Amino acid sequence: MLLVEQIIGTIAEELAKQIEQRNYSERNLWVPAARQLRFPYWDWAAEDVARNGLPRVLKEDKLKVFMGGRNEIEVANPLSYYPYVGEIPPDFQDVESVNGVSYFSQWRRSFRYAESSPDAKRSNIQALERVLKRNVPDMRRKIALLFTFPNGEDSAKAWDEFSNTAMESKRENDQTLRGSLEGVHNNVHSYLGGNGHMSDPDYAAFDPIFFLHHSNVDRLFSLWEWCYPKYWMQDGYTYDGTAYPWTQDRGTYHQVYNEQVLPRGNLAPFRTEKGEYWTSEQTRFLDPKIPGFHPKYYSYPEFEGIKVDLPANDAMRNAGRNKIAKHYGFNPRDSAHRGRGTHPSFPIPRNIPVGIPDNYEMIPQYRSFVVQVRLLEHAYNRSYSFNLTYKTPSGSEEYVGSVSVFARADHSPCAECASRRASRSVVRGVIPIPDTLVEKIISLILAAGSFEAILGNIKKGLTGELVDSTGQKLATAEGGDDAEDVPAGRSTSAKVTPLTISLLSSAIAEDADDSVYMLDSSNHGDIFSHGWLATHEDSRLE
Predict the structure, then answer these.
(1) With 261 labelled, which of 11, 51, 203, 539 sits at a CA distance of 20 to 30 A?
(2) Number of independent structural domains in the chain
(3) Residue ranges of region Disordered (predicted)?
């Protein structure tokens, strides 16, 4: 993104000079503006996206721009799609899905939710916006959780959980409640692409929206780094008293096989202005005291009182992360005050554990619930998603959220992907359950219902489905102990069945400034213990 921004800035300044040379009355107007140009980001988790979908500038194929002499002309919108210049690259390959084919080797432009035809003419923006609008509330809750990491966590483990879906340091028995930035990033690729370019890692960057999406990922990363400057990958992590290095499989451009990954390791093929490879450590850019500091001069508007390029103390950082969490919808104290997510039977620790400051108090009768998801990355040889819905006894349904797997097909030239496919790599994610939904579920049972009864009601109302990038159902499951067992002849194969989908909860302690600690994190077991029903042949093939 940094390289793209620099190239665009260089070209913009050259064009600005040409405009000023042809329009004497507009000298000293265009060049200063070009020098201030930065690549834009699109906050896909803003509240208005749930109402309005894509901004007009990201979906209309034509737009009007001002030229020199204040002339207005209509041009093809470079943010709506990319038309290939010259021949389509010869190594492009078509990708088959349940509902047809993505004709990457024949489409002469980028698409979002295209018709399955080599002669497709336009993107189906209506289909895209239906999926996007439905998922914005879930994405907001996920982002909010990313800013609830407490102080004093193990630096490497906190970074591992925040940064990626593999979560190498968590091992098998983790009770993670916060998810990862990569997980939210994967969701957006799924929602925007359909059977088009954004849903396929090999072709996603040909859609111009890719860059506005990643600019927002960079923005969220910069906000997180500002809030948590002490959390970083380090040289490895510790598990049960034993130190382990980070490892990485063989890559296409930088050959590494089960080799230790260090903060000072090379990030090939990207090079600095000195011709040296960038390192992971140099991607940290907010604090000159950080070893390897390499300023990149990123610029973002102030957000919730945060200006990431200005120094801050711990109190400012704590206040900032609390404001961000609230902005995106995580406010336990307010929820408890309104009776959302509360019940007298909820187990709450009597005492604040050692290590948490004395000024923290438990929120009474309140617990925060999430669904933890572990999926096989290469189950369907392409991108797919797990969707979660709650169905009431009356039959009404409330969509909760999803976890997306952003995966390549087996014919992809990605060498590391082939290694991960062979090792049955796992994608982890979380889906926060809204406090308003917990409140509805509690209202369905007697006020004196036990905690176990509430857990049972949450589970038995949940339904899951696996869907491909076009939304086609591949498998379904019913939650709870009372669900019927899926007949063996109709169940999903081991190749695609989710590894675990569990219900987790935690109590919350807050201080006067609304800083939160998640306590008593508990795993309440598998939700879909009666099996998965294959609804498509791709889910049955071994």
Answers:
(1) 203
(2) 2
(3) 327-348
